[in-house]
């Protein structure tokens, strides 16, 4: 594991030592603990991919026509309050542990578990992420390790354990309806890795790629107006010597009646290689938009997305694709020059006397994909559904069961055709 740099270590130690010192005061200690919360999440995760077509005997693990893993996971999340005074200090701890229940070298490849050099999944993995925080007025400075979710750096939490990052972030809220962000990230621990490593471009590995960086800088601002119905966001991100990127977003929510609501999202992303261009020439532009109409218990969505340039969408390895409007369970439809569209339908079964039961189904099609620069057109489509139920009361309140079913077909790449099942059972227990 790469050692933390001196500047990062100094900032982290300064905040943590300040917290310890202030806790010597009984009044400070009271605020620190009285406003704290601790939640232990029990997450049972199962995934199965059934490969089709030419990939039945070439699944990536080389031994089976399927990829299948089952894990039991524990996520302990402690979030303290702040000490009293004009500057308050706090401490957050995220303890992560995953245990293999089933899965072997012949059925690996789902990214639910890390793999050893022989391609065999680990029996267990995890880590402890600690971050110190300092609050002044309406703003906050955080340093250490935590699970960060921003448009330009979005932690992935779609497998056994969530992704975490090491670094520092300043969040300013001194002006009404305006939030300003600035941060510096030095390390990355993806969803299937218990170590902290340098960052690479999505689709490459920090273990095999020479194009890696320990410096990701970002800044952004979000302004909300129109009675909080409209938000405009602008972001800048830079993975040193690999890529730099600008992101613009407009969100709008327009109620027509108490039962009818229109939501819209428009985004534009522009990126290219940075500095020494360790990953070579990069050129990417993304234009996307989604409109959703919610009427009572029904919701309908339509999304369109256009990729420009000769590169895929630029992001850090292991991060989630949920920033893009057409992101799905197994594809973000973000290949070079790809065009895609999506239709989606959601239903809440509360109208049938089954509160807590919801259904989502969608279809996404991508085409005009540049494949290996040979002039041929790549195509892909995905069909996905989710049936979820959250228990509404009793001792098992908030226990959730989620079944995801998906089918994806492509005419390019490896392991490009499969049917997939995911089952997640999650129970959050509030400890204190």
What does the model show?
This protein has a single domain (6-337, 349-355), classed as Beta Barrel (Porin), CATH 2.40.160. The protein has 2 helices and 22 strands. The two termini are 33 Å apart. The chain has an 18-stranded antiparallel barrel. The chain has a two-stranded antiparallel sheet with strand order 6-7. 6% of the residues lie in helices and 53% in strands. By secondary structure, it is mostly beta strands. Residues 1-10 have low confidence and may be disordered. The radius of gyration is 22 Å and the shape is globular. InterPro entries: OM_porin_bac, Porin_dom_sf. One of its GO terms (molecular function) is porin activity. This is Outer membrane porin, OprD family. Residues 1-30 form the signal peptide.
Topology:
Elements lengths: L5 H17 L3 H9 L2 E15 L14 E14 L7 E16 L21 E13 L2 E8 L2 E2 L2 E2 L9 E9 L5 E12 L9 E2 L11 E2 L2 E10 L4 E10 L3 E13 L4 E14 L9 E13 L2 E11 L30 E10 L8 E14 L6 E14 L9 E11 L6 E14 L2
Antiparallel strand pairs: 1-2, 1-22, 2-3, 3-4, 4-5, 5-8, 6-7, 8-9, 9-12, 10-11, 12-13, 13-14, 14-15, 15-16, 16-17, 17-18, 18-19, 19-20, 20-21, 21-22
Structural class: mainly beta
Note poorly predicted spans.
1-10
Main sheet record: 18 strands, antiparallel, barrel
**Spatial separation of the terminal alpha carbons:** 33 Å
Helix percentage range: under 10%
Spatial extent as radius of gyration: 22 Å
CATH homologous superfamily caption: Porin
How many strands? 22
How many helices? The count is: 2
- Describe the global form: globular
């Amino acid at each position: 594991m790469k050692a933390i740099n001196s500047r990062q270590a100094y900032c982290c130690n300064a905040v943590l030592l300040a917290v310890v010192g202030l806790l010597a005061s009984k009044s400070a200690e009271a605020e620190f603990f009285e406003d704290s919360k601790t939640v232990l999440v029990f997450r049972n995760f199962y995934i199965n991919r059934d490969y089709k077509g030419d990939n039945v005997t070439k699944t990536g693990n080389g031994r089976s026509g399927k990829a299948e893993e089952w894990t039991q996971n524990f996520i302990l999340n402690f979030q303290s309050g702040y000490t009293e005074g004009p500057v308050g200090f706090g401490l957050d701890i995220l303890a992560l542990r995953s245990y293999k229940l089933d899965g072997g070298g012949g059925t690996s490849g789902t990214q639910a578990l890390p793999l050893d050099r022989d391609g065999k999944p680990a029996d267990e993995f995890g880590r402890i992420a600690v971050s110190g925080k300092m609050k002044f007025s309406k703003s906050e400075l955080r340093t250490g390790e935590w699970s960060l979710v921003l448009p330009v750096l979005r932690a992935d939490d779609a497998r056994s354990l969530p992704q975490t990052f090491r670094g520092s972030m300043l969040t300013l809220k001194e002006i009404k309806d305006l939030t300003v962000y600035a941060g510096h990230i030095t390390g990355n621990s993806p969803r299937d890795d218990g170590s902290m490593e340098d960052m690479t471009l999505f689709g490459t590995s920090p273990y095999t790629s020479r194009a890696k960086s320990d410096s990701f800088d970002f800044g952004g601002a979000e302004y909300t107006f129109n009675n909080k119905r409209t938000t405009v966001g602008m972001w800048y991100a830079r993975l040193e010597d690999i890529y730099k990127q600008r992101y613009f977003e407009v969100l709008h929510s327009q109620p027509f009646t108490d039962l009818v609501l229109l939501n819209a999202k428009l985004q534009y992303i522009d990126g290219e290689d940075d500095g020494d261009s360790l990953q070579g020439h990069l050129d990417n532009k993304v234009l996307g938009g989604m409109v959703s109409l919610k009427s009572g218990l029904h919701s309908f969505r339509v999304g369109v997305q256009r990729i420009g340039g000769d590169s895929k969408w630029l992001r850090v390895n292991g991060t989630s694709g949920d920033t893009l409007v057409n992101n799905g369970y197994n594809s973000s439809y973000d290949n070079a020059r790809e065009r895609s569209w999506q239709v989606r339908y959601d239903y809440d079964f509360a109208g049938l006397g089954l509160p807590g039961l919801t259904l989502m189904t969608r279809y996404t099609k991508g085409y005009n994909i540049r494949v290996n620069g040979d002039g041929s057109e790549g195509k892909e489509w995905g069909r996905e559904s989710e049936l979820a139920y959250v228990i509404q009361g009793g001792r098992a309140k908030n226990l959730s069961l989620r079944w995801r079913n998906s089918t994806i077909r492509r005419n390019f790449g490896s392991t490009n055709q499969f049917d997939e099942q995911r089952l997640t059972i999650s129970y959050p227990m509030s400890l204190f």
